[in-house]
């Protein structure tokens, strides 16, 4: 009788162990399935169809406009690493990206803004009289604001430089030769963006016009007249260290390096807009890898393990079928997992139009800086895409 009870207990224990094992197995399989489902992108990264939009609430014309001013175009926006608020610039009312009748030289307004990220209130506004056409912006760890000045003025006294400002607006440093477009070491010819590396080194994306060079002859002619497409590196105090790249389509070459960002591993990401790709380098300029699934990138922003890439220029004749907007994906994969759609525009049928700069705050809200292609549809220089229903 005792033996039977022992046998029953053993059998019962075995059944319990088997059941527990089966439950663990089932849970493990469910976790694997969920992980695989998460990794599988069912949406279309070209059109954005079927991809989730993490920031559904659209606020056009975001940010308070100072009295008596009209928003101009922009291409840059960033997040303050200290207080999380938003830094950006606009081109003193100019409708163009340089070379038009209005710029910050002949219309001397303060082009640099700091906005409260929740209310859009202006917290700071400065930069008057320093630049011609701001084109890129970065905020370093100390809260200093860096601006690339893309174009030169008629007098040849301003432009083609990068400027560093304190958070209060004092100009602390300028890199490049004022008013002179050049391709020699330490010179710029249409600088697009600037970023400060982990060790304080300064990186500048130089050269805008190569994105329009669509033949080998056009590239050769551009190089002959001094056009550039390169990255220049400087020490924290502005001394030239090195440049790399040139106009071309090979890895390590560019056709308009339009925006820069560093990831958490200290790698430099370059939005190579004319070549419809992102190029990734180490801090010495060694090519590492590329991304091809994010459209024709104008701007990029990395928060944690996620990259946000904004496409403002895909159109029926330079990048057929690709829809403008913000593509979102993991830093370590060439894969799109989310999409914020563009505004519609009649002459970009099926493709729409979006901004040129992108930034993301700590809550996941996405901010776009509207360029010449999108400012009319956006209704102002900045758009906020908020998380929520």
What does this structure look like?
The chain is built from three helices and 24 strands. It is α+β, with helices and mostly antiparallel strands and 389 residues long. A four-stranded antiparallel β-sheet has the order 1-24-23-22, with no helix packed on it. The protein has a four-stranded antiparallel β-sheet with strand order 2-3-4-5, with no helix packed on it. A four-stranded antiparallel β-sheet has the order 6-7-8-9, with no helix packed on it. It is globular and about 50 Å long. The chain starts with a helix and ends with a strand. The N terminus is likely disordered.
SSE topology:
Blueprint: H1 2-39, E1 57-59, E2 77-79, E3 86-89, E4 112-115, E5 122-126, E6 134-139, E7 145-149, E8 161-165, E9 171-175, E10 191-196, E11 202-206, H2 216-224, E12 230-234, E13 240-244, E14 257-262, E15 268-272, E16 277-281, E17 287-291, E18 297-303, E19 306-311, E20 325-330, E21 338-340, E22 357-360, E23 366-369, H3 375-378, E24 382-386
Antiparallel strand pairs: 1-24, 2-3, 3-4, 4-5, 6-7, 7-8, 8-9, 10-11, 11-12, 12-13, 14-15, 15-16, 16-17, 18-19, 19-20, 20-21, 22-23, 23-24
């Amino acid at each position: 009788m005792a033996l039977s009870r022992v046998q029953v207990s053993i059998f019962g224990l075995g059944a319990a162990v088997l059941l527990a094992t089966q439950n663990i197995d089932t849970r493990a399989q469910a976790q694997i399935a969920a992980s695989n489902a998460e990794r599988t992108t069912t949406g279309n990264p070209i059109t954005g169809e079927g991809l989730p939009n993490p920031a559904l609430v659209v606020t056009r014309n975001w940010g308070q406009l100072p009295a008596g001013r009209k928003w101009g175009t922009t291409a840059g926006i960033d997040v303050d690493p200290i207080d999380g608020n938003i830094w950006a610039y606009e081109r003193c009312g100019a409708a163009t990206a340089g070379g038009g009748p209005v710029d910050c030289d002949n219309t001397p307004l303060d082009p640099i803004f700091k906005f409260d990220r929740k209310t859009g209130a202006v917290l700071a506004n400065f930069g008057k009289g320093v630049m011609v056409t701001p084109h890129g912006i970065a905020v370093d760890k100390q809260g200093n604001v860096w601006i690339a000045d893309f174009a030169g003025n008629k007098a040849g006294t301003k432009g083609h430089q990068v400027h560093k400002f304190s958070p209060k607006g004092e100009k602390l440093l300028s890199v490049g030769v004022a008013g002179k477009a050049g391709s020699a070491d330490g010179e710029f010819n249409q600088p697009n963006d600037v970023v400060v590396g982990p060790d304080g080194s300064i990186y500048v994306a130089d050269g805008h016009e190569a994105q329009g060079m669509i033949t080998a002859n056009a590239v050769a002619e551009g190089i002959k007249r001094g056009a550039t497409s390169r990255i220049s590196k400087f020490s924290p105090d502005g001394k030239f260290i090195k440049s790399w790249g040139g106009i071309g389509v090979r890895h390590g070459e560019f056709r308009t390096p339009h925006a820069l960002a560093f990831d958490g591993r200290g790698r430099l990401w370059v939005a190579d807009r004319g070549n419809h790709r992102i190029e990734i380098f180490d801090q010495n300029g060694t090519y590492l890898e590329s991304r091809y699934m994010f459209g024709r990138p104008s701007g990029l922003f990395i928060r944690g393990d996620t990259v946000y890439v904004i496409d403002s220029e895909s159109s029926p004749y330079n990048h057929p079928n690709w829809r403008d907007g913000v593509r979102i994906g993991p830093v370590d994969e060439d894969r799109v997992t989310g999409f914020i759609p563009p505004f519609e525009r009649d002459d970009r049928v099926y493709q729409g139009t979006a901004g040129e700069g992108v930034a993301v705050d700590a809550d996941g809200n996405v901010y776009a800086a509207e360029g010449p292609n999108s400012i009319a549809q956006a209704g102002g220089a900045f758009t906020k895409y908020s998380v929520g229903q």
